[in-house]
Amino acid sequence: MKFKIILAGLFILLILCVLGTAMVGYSNIRYTSQNAVLRYISEHKDDISVACFDPANPQAGFYHNETEAYPQASTFKILLLLGYAEQVEAGLLDPEEQIPLSALEAYHMPGTDGGAHPEFLKSLGEERETASLSEVVGGMITYSSNAAADYVLSRLGGVDWNNLYSRLGLEQTSLPHSYLGLYLYISNHDTGTYDLISLGPEETLAEQIRLEKLFVNDLEWRDAELKYLANFTNQPGVEVQETVTSDFGVRASASDLSKTMLAVFGYSDALSPEAQAIARQHLEWPMQRNPDNTKTFKTLAVKNGAWPGVLTSAWYAEPLDADPRVLVVLYRNVPRDFWNAWLASFSQQMLEVNVLTSANCGLYADALAP
Q1: Is residue 141 within 8 Å of residue 283, measured between CB atoms?
Q2: Strand 70-71 and strand 325-331: pairing?
Q3: Could you give the CA distance from residue 368 to residue 370 in angstroms, rounded to a whole number?
Q4: Lower CB count within 10 Å: N or C terminus of the chain?
């Protein structure tokens, strides 16, 4: 009898192992293989924007929904980087200025950037109490710290954004506003969770600014908010997060983001050579962080982003054996199962790297063909 029980147990274990393997295989086929990503793209044409081209010949590139403004998440931080670069060039900001880390913490709202800010602080070393302004900008771009981004934005009061946008030729890009204010607008201990009809778009930005100032400057209000955040039951639903970030967060088009990359890498005269060099120093972090990239690329620069239902990427690449490419891919309204799978596996980014490595936009062109 005991022998039969053991056999039965082994049989059940074998079944579970087979089912587990099958589920992993199904997940790969359904969500994370390159074919799965391409199939998703072909089935969701209205919610994908692509600009893919050789910067020496943009007219021959592939474009899809490229002039429509999409939610940007952290990819928008490229614009903050350009504002910073021009302020350094003008002598108004010193990249070596030492910034107390406590000044960054004032903007840190735990749980809103996937642990990016703690990872940035960890990279500095446990004993550090300050970081150079350049390192803070690196935390904004390389690690995608929202606290670093909002601190940098607080230092860019001298930027003439309208003039910068005009020189870059941006037509569908919103003016910068804080990530902290947006997340507090979604939910906070004072006004509760956004109810989707409480304010119109005209009042929204002013309310975000008000909430950010309270969090940064009013220690009592901040402490109450941190206690509120610590209670998991106070977290807003994903549907609310998706709606508010998509409707009221920073936005830009693939066309506009392409223009920023062209400017950074010297294909237009919108930025001075000094500002270009400062921006490249930070955007080329994949080459600095992973030396293996030098086996495939002469240059690789990127800024990615993610909000609930949103995934974004803006790339510039010079493969060793192919022509350069600018690639911008924006997704919105991504169903939760795909969004979770891609966020964990980077499947959509692997497709992007494949396109850049081969300098071939045809994969997107074929998937998005009428």
Answers
A1: yes
A2: unpaired
A3: 6
A4: C
- DSSP H helices, 90-198, are 101-105, 116-124, 133-141, 146-154, 161-168, 179-186
CB contact at 8 A, 361 and 355:
yes
Within 10 angstroms of residue 343's Cβ, the number of other Cβ atoms is 15
The residues near 341 (Cβ < 8 Å, ≥ 6 apart) are 27, 31, 32, 347
Amino acid identity, position 178: S
Over pLDDT 70: what percentage of the chain? 91
Model confidence, pTM: 0.91
Rounded Cα–Cα distance for residues 180 and 215 (Å): 9
Count Cβ atoms below 10 Å from residue 353 Cβ, excluding itself. 20
At 239-295, the pLDDT tens digits run 889 999 999 999 999 999 999 999 999 999 999 999 999 999 999 999 999 999 999
- pLDDT tens for 51-69 read 999 999 999 999 999 999 9
> Which residue type occupies 179?
Y
Contact criterion met (CB below 8 Å) for 343 and 282: no
User: Which residues contact residue 130 at a Cβ distance below 8 angstroms, ignoring those fewer than 6 apart?
Assistant: 98, 99, 100, 101
